[in-house]
Amino acid sequence: MPEIKHSAFAGYLKGLDRQEAGQGVQVYFFFGEEYLRNSLLAELVARLVPEDRKALNYDTFDASDSGIFEALERVNTFSLTPGARVFAIRDCELSSRGSAQDTQFMKAKQAWQKNESGKAARFFLGGLSRLGLTLKGASAKKIASKTDLDPSGDADWIEALIEHCVARKLKVPQAHDSRTALTRAVKKGFPGNHFLCLTADKPEKRSALFKALKEAGMVVDCLVPLTERKADKAEQEAVLRAQIESVLKPLGKRLAPDAYGVLFDYTGFSPRKFAGDLDKLASYVGARDVITAADVKAALTRTRLDPVYELTGAVAARKTDQALFYLSSLIENEFHPLQVLAALINQVRKLLTAKLFITSEEGKIWHSRAGYNEFKSRMIPAIQAYDQRLADVFTQWQAALEKQMEHKAKGTKAKSKSSKSSDLLVAKNPNNPYPVYLLLKNASRFDMGDLVQAMEILSQADLQLKTSALMPKLVLEEAVLKICSSGSGAA
Fold this sequence. Notes:
Rossmann fold; Zinc Finger, Delta Prime, domain 3
């Protein structure tokens, strides 16, 4: 059976007939973005099961061993009720047994931090079952010794969750290999008009279960790339535009063209939050059929968690107001100040690398007015030649260093750690030239002296953060202001 993208699933549903559905695909697997995969599952259920029969003909199960075995028992039992029967197992783990137990604990940690204690306990007990531990014999140190968890950083929530489970007299379920049973059942098939649906975050495509699902059923890829590449941002926007259509059209509302950008700035790429805010806006405007940008600003509070690259991008473009805004957002969302500082240092190092190319013999071909097409055709070859020259120099240095170390060791060959020095290359991935194009354009906004001074500013900020009592936010704000506004290249 095929593996299709989420955008193609609506077309598939249009051709799906309730009466003949049981003769075709009976297994569906949705993986990827949570809100998206759950929405497509809901659309499939609505297509297969009439609304007035959902209470009898639609059942959901958790992905614990007991939940999976119960689902398999139910889906393999012939039903006396007419019509299609749909059984859904949510949040499955398709990876290997060893990594699956780590995932159980990480899901438990995430649920516990969200105050979802019941969900956290279920994942935690499932993880203990796979490790062969009981609540009495469990401890943060013992769990960490059998997994990739941090025995110090994860100790508090693990011990608190153990106390929670003990206080409620919860028990570790008996260990069963539910994934093997699920794999066999998928290969064998189910009674006519019975459907099994599974959802997961990001499966291990080499696992036997995934291969069985793809061979016997339909796999729907709901992954949405979250990078800043133009194609990826277009896919993100397409998903959110689809949310606008599905939420507002049935209500007879529409979003004004300028309101989309404001709403996206408030939520970021979060389909669940985006859809929820659209519903709030529809109620807010009342009888009006158009939602404006002013409505978004009046009715909503900005909840977007700005990624670090928004800050570093604003600093690289010397946009002071934006840089201070994103810095404030990151600090308010509890990003560690040293993490923010490390990102700024990394950005300035990239700008220095680009500036070194611009001032080199090969870089004479570059000019800041160059269009992207000209850059790809004329300038990428020059960058590759520059990077190759650097790589040759690094190789010579490495050989000389190894020879010197052998000489000092008096004939005993001493191996030095290999250093590719790739941080000094301009185009680490020439097949993706657009980020390099933006980097060079931003580097052109700085003189070499500006960038050297920026590194000194960040070094001073590092010292202040680690040794002084100054507020970290003020230290970082001062550094950002100095980098964006000082020097001859400042806007």
